[in-house]
Specification:
The complex is a heterotrimer of chains A (154), B (206) and C (368). Chain A is α+β, with helices and mostly antiparallel strands and 154 residues long. Chain A has one domain. Helices cover 47% and strands 25% of the residues of chain A. The model of chain A has no long low-confidence stretch (mean pLDDT 94). Chain B has one domain: Bacterial phosphonate metabolism protein PhnH (Rossmann fold), CATH 3.40.50.11310. The N terminus of chain B is likely disordered. In chain B, helix 2 crosses helix 3. Chain B contains 6 helices and 9 strands, in the order H-H-E-H-E-H-H-E-E-E-E-H-E-E-E. The model of chain C has no long low-confidence stretch (mean pLDDT 91). Chain C folds into 2 domains: 74 residues; 201 residues, no CATH class. In chain C, a hairpin with an 8-residue loop joins strand 5 and strand 6. Helices cover 39% and strands 15% of the residues of chain C. Chain C contains 12 helices and 6 strands. In chain C, helix 3 packs across helix 5 and helix 8 crosses helix 9. Classes of the chains: A alpha+beta (154), B alpha/beta (206), C alpha+beta (368). Chains in contact: A-B, A-C, B-C. Strand 2 of chain A pairs parallel with strand 1 of chain C, so a sheet runs across the interface.
C-alpha cells in the first residue's frame, strides 16, 4: 500500500475513533439502531475498564509529568468478514466500547464503510461541532472589551 | 490494511475468562512459591504464539502488565508474534536490559545468561528484583535437586529440565546475595513449580 | 501501637445501618441523583477528581453521595477504587495551548491575543446569598456572541519571546517522568514528581502554604501570568494501532504564575514561573499549586531556604489529605494496652514525685 494511501486511511480511522470517543454511549446506540447496522462479532478483548495516567508538561511546554489517572474502557472485536476493530474511550461505558469497536471494524469493511461514515460518524461530528460552537459563543460573550479612559498625565 | 494490524495470532489466544483465569493462575503460583519445589497443575485457555508455551503465556498474562518491564530470551524476542501478543494482551513494555526487567520469560533455560545479570533488588528494596519464568519440559527427568528452606518441612526433591547451566553453583551465589536475589518460576507443559531466593539447593549424587 | 480486639461486630453492623439511614435523610424527600450531583455540585465533583487523582465525574459524584458530602472521605473512596483498576498506559501530554477555552484571564497583559474571557466565574459577584436559589427558578439562558474562534497562545509563550522570562525547561530525561503512584517517595524529588504530588495535594493545605509565601515566608512577588480553564483532548499510544488513539476530552485548570527573580551567579535577572495544572475547574487550587511549585524551586534557583513552603520534604510529605487523615484518625482506634502502660508509668512517676516532695518537706521541717 502506498504511504499516502495508508496515511489517509489512518487519518479517517482516527477521525472516526475521535467522533465515537467524544460521543455519549446512548446517542451512539440510537444512531446504530437507526442505521440498522449489524452487531455480530467475536470478542477478542474486553470490554475492560482500566486507568490511563494523564500527563501534562511542566510550564505547559516543558518536560512531562504525571497529572493523575482517568478511567478508560476498551474493547477489541472481530466481525464475521474478518476485520478487527478497536475502541478506547474515557469513562466506564462497556456498551459504548462495544459499538465503537464494531464501528471501527465495520468502517474498514467495504460493505459498511459508507453507512458507518454517513449514519454514525457524520451526525456525531456535526452534533459535537454544534455543541462546541455554542460553548465558544457563550464564553465569547464574557470577553472583556477594554476602552481606555482619558489618562491624567498632564 | 493488514499492515496496520498486528498479525491475527497476536490478537487471538488471550484468556477466555480473564478475571477467573488470572485468579486461578495467581493462586497456583502463590501456592507454588509458598511451598518451593512442589508441582502444581495449571489449566489454561491461553494460546500464545510459538515458541511460548501456554503455561508461560498464562503466567505472563497473570503477572505482567503495563508497569512491569519484561525481558525475553533470544528465541522469544525473535518472534514478532510473541512480542505483539504480549503487547496486546499484557501491555508490558520490553526492558532494554535484563537489569531493568521485573519479569523475564525464558524459552530456552540451557542458553540463559547468568542469573546475576538480572535485577537483584537493593538492601532497602529487595523486592525490586526480577522474577524469571523458565520454560521446562518436566520436573522428573533432569538433575535431581535437593531443596531445603522456608516452606519445606524437611526436604524435597525436584528434577526439572532443562535448567540454566551450572545451576546449582549459580543458585548458591543467588542465595549468598540474600535478601537480594532473583526468584524462579518453572513452567512445565501443564504445571508450575517455584524456587524462591530463600530455598537452598544441592545436587543429589547419582 | 494498637492491638487487635474482638467484639463489637453487632455494634459495627448496626452503626453502618444507621449511617445508611442518616445518609438517606428524610425519606419523604427524593433521593439525590448522581446526575444532579455532577451537574449542580460540579465543583465538589471536580475537587474529588483532582485530589482523588481520578478523572471520572460519575464515580466522584457517587463518592460525594456515599460520603454524605464529606469531600475528604469521598477522595478516600475514589483513591481506594482506583487501586482496583489495571493501568493501560500513559497519555500523550495534554496540549493546554489547544484547549477549548471556557475561561482565560491574565493579570499581566490587558490586551493579550484571544482576549480576556471571564467565563463562569464567582469573581465580581457580591457574595450576597441569593434567596432565589432556594427555589426552583430557572436562570436566564447564557448570552452568546458569534465570531471566529481566535487562537489563544499561552501568555508564557508571548513573554518568552524577548527572553525576560525563563523557558519551559528541557524535555525530560529518557528515564521518563517520575510516578509517585508506582515508586515510593524519595527526597529530593524532581519537579515532575513534585507537580504530581501537588496536583493531588489537599487544596486547603496548598492554599495555606501559598498564602504564607505572600505574607513574607519566602516572598516571590507573584503575578498571574495566565489562568485558563477548559477542555483538552486526550490521546494514548497503544501497540495495536499505528496512531495515537483519541479518548475524549477532560476539563483542566492551568495557572502560570510569574515571579520576579533577581538572578544568581548562573542565571540573569528575569521572571521565573510556577506552574499549576489541576483536574476540573479549580482556580484556587491551580493558583496555590503554582505558588507552591515556585517556592519549592528555591534550592534549584539558589535562593535562601527560610520558610516552610520552600521545604520540599515538609510540603510533599504533608500535602496528601488521605495519608494525613489516615494517620490523624487512627488515633481513635483502640489504644487500650498502650494507654495502660502509659498510665502505669505516670502513676509510678507521680508516686516518686510525691515521695520526693514529702521528703523535701520533712527535711525542711527538721532544719527549722
Amino acid at each position: 500500500m502506498p504511504r499516502e494511501r495508508e496515511a489517509e486511511i489512518n487519518a479517517a480511522r482516527h477521525r472516526r475513533m475521535a467522533a465515537l470517543a467524544h460521543a455519549d454511549g446512548a446517542r451512539i446506540a440510537e444512531l446504530w439502531t437507526g442505521a440498522g447496522l449489524p452487531v455480530d462479532c467475536e470478542v477478542l478483548r474486553g470490554p475492560e475498564t482500566g486507568l490511563v495516567m494523564l500527563r501534562g508538561r511542566i510550564g505547559g511546554g516543558g518536560g512531562r509529568f504525571n497529572l493523575g489517572d482517568a478511567t478508560v474502557t476498551r474493547m477489541t472485536v472481530r466481525i464475521p468478514s474478518g476485520e478487527i476493530g478497536h475502541a478506547y474511550a474515557l469513562g466506564r461505558d462497556g456498551d459504548k466500547a462495544r459499538l465503537s469497536a464494531l464501528a471501527d471494524a465495520l468502517g474498514q469493511s467495504p460493505a459498511y464503510r459508507e453507512t458507518v461514515e454517513a449514519r454514525i460518524v457524520a451526525p456525531l461530528l456535526a452534533e459535537a461541532e454544534k455543541a462546541d460552537r455554542r460553548r465558544r459563543g457563550e464564553t465569547a460573550a464574557t470577553k472583556v472589551d477594554f476602552f481606555t479612559m482619558v489618562r491624567g498625565e498632564d | 490494511m493488514a499492515m496496520t494490524e498486528p498479525v491475527a495470532a497476536a490478537i487471538d489466544g488471550g484468556f477466555a475468562r480473564p478475571v477467573f483465569e488470572a485468579q486461578h493462575v495467581f493462586r497456583t503460583v502463590m501456592e507454588a512459591m509458598a511451598r518451593p519445589g512442589s508441582v502444581h497443575p495449571v489449566a489454561t485457555s491461553a494460546r500464545p504464539p510459538e515458541p511460548m508455551t501456554p503455561t508461560v503465556g498464562a503466567v505472563a498474562l497473570t503477572l505482567v502488565d503495563h508497569d512491569t518491564p519484561l525481558w525475553l530470551d533470544t528465541a522469544l524476542a525473535a518472534s514478532e508474534a510473541v512480542r505483539e501478543w504480549l503487547a496486546f494482551h499484557a501491555g508490558a513494555p520490553l526492558a532494554r536490559t535484563p537489569a531493568e526487567a521485573h519479569f523475564a520469560l525464558v524459552s530456552g533455560p540451557a542458553e540463559l545468561i547468568a542469573l546475576e545479570n538480572f535485577a537483584q533488588g537493593s538492601q532497602n528494596y529487595p523486592d525490586r528484583s526480577a522474577t524469571i519464568i523458565l520454560t521446562v519440559e518436566g520436573f522428573r527427568d533432569g538433575q535431581a535437586l535437593l531443596l531445603k528452606g522456608p516452606g519445606i518441612e524437611t526436604e524435597t526433591v525436584i528434577a526439572p529440565h532443562p535448567m540454566p547451566r551450572h545451576f546449582v553453583e549459580q543458585w548458591k551465589q543467588n542465595r549468598a546475595r540474600f535478601p537480594r536475589g532473583v526468584d524462579l518460576i518453572l513452567a512445565g507443559p501443564d504445571a508450575v513449580a517455584c524456587l524462591p531466593r530463600t530455598t537452598r539447593v544441592t545436587a543429589m549424587e547419582g | 501501637m494498637y492491638v487487635a480486639v474482638k467484639g463489637g461486630e453487632a455494634a459495627i453492623r448496626n452503626a453502618h445501618r444507621l449511617l445508611a439511614d442518616r445518609r438517606r435523610g428524610d425519606r419523604d424527600l427524593p433521593s439525590i441523583g448522581l446526575d444532579q450531583i455532577v451537574e449542580q455540585l460540579a465543583l465538589a465533583v471536580d475537587r474529588v477528581m483532582a485530589e482523588g487523582s481520578l478523572y471520572d465525574r460519575d464515580l466522584a459524584a457517587l463518592a460525594v453521595k456515599q460520603a454524605r458530602g464529606d469531600l475528604i472521605e469521598a477522595i478516600f473512596l475514589v483513591r481506594a477504587y482506583r487501586t482496583t483498576l489495571p493501568r493501560f498506559g500513559y497519555s500523550v501530554p495534554l496540549d493546554t495551548a489547544a484547549m477549548l477555552v471556557e475561561r482565560r484571564i491574565s493579570a499581566t497583559y490587558k490586551d493579550l491575543p484571544g482576549g480576556q474571557l471571564l467565563g463562569p466565574t464567582f469573581d465580581y459577584t457580591h457574595r450576597l446569598l441569593d434567596p432565589d436559589l432556594a427555589g426552583e427558578a430557572a436562570p436566564e439562558a447564557p448570552a452568546t456572541r458569534e465570531g471566529e474562534a481566535e487562537p489563544m497562545p499561552r501568555v508564557s509563550d508571548l513573554l518568552g519571546r524577548d527572553g525576560l522570562i525563563e523557558a519551559d525547561g528541557d524535555a525530560d530525561t529518557d528515564k521518563g517522568p517520575a510516578d509517585i503512584t508506582r515508586e515510593p517517595l524519595e527526597f529530593p524529588l524532581g519537579r515532575d514528581g513534585r507537580l504530581q504530588a501537588l496536583a493531588r495535594g489537599d487544596e486547603g493545605f496548598l492554599l495555606a502554604l501559598a498564602y504564607s509565601t505572600q505574607r513574607g515566608y519566602a516572598r516571590s512577588h507573584p503575578f498571574v501570568g495566565e489562568i485558563r480553564i477548559g477542555e483538552v483532548e486526550v490521546e494514548i499510544e497503544v501497540p495495536e494501532l499505528p496512531f495515537p488513539v483519541p479518548l475524549g476530552r477532560v476539563r483542566v485548570t492551568e495557572c502560570q504564575m510569574v515571579n520576579q527573580f533577581k538572578g544568581s551567579l548562573k542565571a540573569p535577572p528575569q521572571f521565573t514561573r510556577g506552574y499549576g495544572l489541576v483536574f476540573g475547574q479549580s482556580e484556587r487550587k491551580a493558583m496555590a499549586m503554582s505558588l507552591t511549585d515556585r517556592s519549592l524551586r528555591a534550592y534549584e534557583l539558589g535562593e535562601d531556604l527560610v520558610a516552610p513552603a520552600q521545604d520540599e520534604e515538609f510540603v510533599i510529605s504533608h500535602s496528601d489529605n488521605v495519608q494525613a487523615t489516615g494517620f490523624v484518625e487512627h488515633l481513635k482506634l483502640p489504644h487500650y494496652v498502650d494507654f495502660q502502660a502509659e498510665l502505669d508509668l505516670v502513676r509510678r512517676m507521680r508516686a516518686e514525685f510525691e515521695a520526693r516532695g514529702e521528703g523535701g518537706v520533712e527535711r525542711q521541717e527538721a532544719a527549722e
